[in-house]
């Protein structure tokens, strides 16, 4: 089955650059970019298939809470990361805060085609781990301790997420420029976008958007951005990860 084949391929890409096993943040970030390209390619082909056949069984619209309702509030850098990953995989990201009274945890829900939502789940867990490891490394390297360490770390994570968002957006654009530029693909992808919007509105009819303002430590934010800029992009040798 094509869906399972592409999902397994993406799992393999990530597993072969598991940061907890290899210790290489660069390989892990490269794997995420390759996975984003693979998913964009798959999304285009599936959209064209659905457009031509109207086969509802190809890949259904679903939603998944990637936090699992285990916390009352999600940290904002993780919400931003989830949103960046969702955008890169043609999904929607909806964050809702938790409530002690109703015993309901916070949720970061990803809505989209089943295969894309699964990939978002993999990538979120994967990249959260990478960012945490790199943040700790930089704190130790730069001797960031004591008062202000929490704000520095939060700023670093936001900076890293900003770079990851840019990298994932670039990967998606590269694939769409190659595969999504035909008239059939454009019409199919437009239909996909409309179906996702309808699905989201049905699940969240009273959805409201709010802006969150955060104060960052400039050094921490810039450190996160710089680390992100040094993350290696795929080269001819590294492309074997996605083979």
Report on the structure:
The structure is a single chain. The protein is 63% helix and 7% strand. Helix 1 runs parallel beside helix 5 (114-141), helix 3 (25-53) packs antiparallel against helix 5 and helix 3 crosses helix 6 (149-179). The protein is globular and about 60 Å long. The protein is mainly alpha-helical and 243 residues long. The protein is built from eight helices and three strands. The longest helix is centred in the C-terminal third of the chain and has 31 residues, at 149-179. A three-stranded antiparallel beta sheet has the order 1-3-2, sandwiched between helices.
Helix and strand composition category: mainly alpha
List the total number of helices: 8
Q: How are helices and strands ordered from N to C?
A: HHHEHEEHHHH
Spatially, the strands of the biggest sheet line up as 1-3-2
Please state the overall shape, judged from the principal axes of the Cα atoms.
globular
Proportion of beta-strand residues: 5-15%
Largest sheet: 3 strands, antiparallel
Share of residues in helices: 55-70%
| Rg from alpha-carbon coordinates | 19 Å
Unreliable runs: 231-243
Number of strands: 3
Q: End-to-end span in angstroms?
A: 18 Å
Overall pLDDT? 77
Secondary-structure map with pairings?
Blueprint: H1 2-15, H2 19-22, H3 25-53, E1 61-65, H4 76-88, E2 92-96, E3 107-113, H5 114-141, H6 149-179, H7 183-203, H8 218-230
